[in-house]
Amino acid sequence: MNNKPSNKLPKWDKTQIDEQKKINKRLTIRTIITLIAVFIVIIVAIVVSFASCNKDGTPKGPGPDASAEQIEAYLQNKFADNNAASIDQVQVADKTKILMVKLNNVDVSSGNSSANSFSQLADELQAVCSYDLAKKGVIFYGVDNYQTATTEKNKLSFAVYFNQSNINSLNSDYSDYIQSGNYPELFENANGYYLYELFRRPNKKLMKLPATKSERIISESVDGLVK
Fold it and tell me: Which residues, other chains included, contact 217 with Cβ-Cβ below 8 Å and sequence gap of 6+?
């Protein structure tokens, strides 16, 4: 009797073959369903991305009835790449109900830095003018720490006030005009402004301007905000 092992693989019977075909079919269907689901998720993500942005790819702002917190989040997102005049906080003045936008990194130590800071401020100014909270106008302001021989204290460095109609009258390329060295006109065109002496002292162009214009609305609006 020949007991040598066979080198042939065992033959599957018809039942085994049919069962394997069913398993393969189920796996194929599951794979197709998974791929379709992934494709749908990708399409939805693309649609949402386009819906949340303007044609130029910038994020869409909230509706005209947005709260100060919503406007703040939008501005911080829209102008996240600003290397000057960066958005710190947005709120409404208690007394005047003017929309208050606090800025950081406004540098007037040179002509170039001033042009850069105030041109970006001009962009931000035009971005907020359509909101209901801006109906009373908008004040952009900055607060810095100043040290004298006897004291060290936070003070209002600058504030510039535009009413809504004045903002709407600005040309769409106004920030480019400011960038080209015409930044004193941002203050001259404003409905009111304030420039702290130590803030503007390094800048010859700003030193030629009067220190204030319609200061009362500025002081009433920033009351309690300089800490």
Answer: 96, 98, 161, 191, 192
Q: Quick one: CA dihedral 213, 219, 85, 68, positive or negative?
A: negative
C-beta atoms surrounding 71 within 10 Å: 23
Cross-strand bridge partners of residue 103: 87, 142
Euclidean distance between the first and the last CA atom of the chain, given in angstroms as a whole number: 105
What CA–CA distance (Å, rounded) separates 68 from 108? 28
Domain coordinates in residue numbering, the chain: 14-51, 68-222
Predicted confidence (pLDDT) per residue in 148-188, tens digit: 778 889 999 999 999 999 999 998 899 999 999 999 999 99
pTM score:
0.73
d(CA 225, CA 227): 6
pLDDT tens-digit map of 7-30:
555 555 667 767 777 788 888 888
